[in-house]
Write a structure and sequence with these properties.
Layout: E1 2-4, E2 21-25, H1 30-38, E3 42-43, E4 52-54, E5 59-63, H2 74-82, E6 86-89, H3 93-101, H4 115-126, E7 130-137, E8 140-150, E9 155-163, H5 168-182, E10 187-191, H6 195-200, E11 203-205, H7 207-212
Parallel strand pairs: 1-2, 9-10
Antiparallel strand pairs: 2-4, 3-4, 5-10, 5-11, 6-7, 7-8, 8-9
Helix pairs in contact: 3-4
């Protein structure tokens, strides 16, 4: 594991052990974040700890080249029809991030989405690299997600999602899946395995396969 300094350089992502911890340190500058995502690396750490950079093997993705990248249940279809949700894109990026920061996650005491994280990713959004999908109910934001868009690589790096109403985050994800599939994207990067992502249809692929698309 390498300790980063002010130089904009990472170890090769395939050199990380299977659990994925590649390097620590550095900063959350726009330049470093873009280099990281374009290299298949992402930051994830607890507030107050050094910045940790990850490249796990295997990698969790939604395969947008498959016939059914996301599992759409009967109840989700009913929510689409009956809940009166309105889907928007990039209208309140920072607000989506702040909601994601409040999500309670199993086996995690806090959140990695601290003020520095929000500031850096909001800057990425201003520059067109970070995007959000928002779900509204009667003009109230009730769900959404955000991530880093790599259109030249045909990969969207999903970061986090939240929901305050039934299926709202799933509605946001389904919208993203359909939009990216129509643009012939390869993957939505979901980073690390968890049961919720698996239930939605995400699969694990070898790290080298994922990196080959970058």
């Amino acid at each position: 594991m390498q300790t980063l300094d002010h130089n904009l350089i990472f170890p090769h992502p395939s050199s990380a052990p299977d659990h994925g911890l590649l390097a620590i340190g550095g900063d959350l500058s726009v330049e470093r974040l873009l280099l990281a995502y374009q290299s298949g690396i992402f930051p994830w750490y607890s507030d107050g700890d050094p910045i940790c950079w990850w490249s796990p093997d295997p990698r969790m993705v939604f395969d947008l080249q498959s016939d059914e990248p996301m599992r759409v249940t009967k109840s989700l279809k009913q929510s689409q029809r009956n809940k009166g949700y309105i889907i928007k894109e990039n209208t309140c990026f920072t607000e989506v991030m702040r909601h994601c920061a409040l999500v309670k996650r199993q086996d995690e005491a806090g959140t990695w989405i601290n003020d520095d994280f929000i500031s850096s990713y909001s800057r990425l959004h201003e520059l067109g690299h970070a995007k959000s999908i928002e779900v509204f109910k009667e003009d109230v934001l009730v769900g959404g997600l955000y991530g880093i868009d790599l259109p030249e690589k045909k990969i969207f790096c999903g970061e986090s999602m939240f929901t305050l109403a039934t299926d709202a985050s799933k509605i946001a994800l389904l919208h993203l899946v359909k939009s990216l599939k129509s643009k012939d994207y390869h993957f939505i990067d979901a980073q690390l395995y968890n049961d919720h992502l698996h239930s939605l249809g995400a699969i694990e692929i070898d790290r080298e396969v994922f990196l080959s698309y970058l």
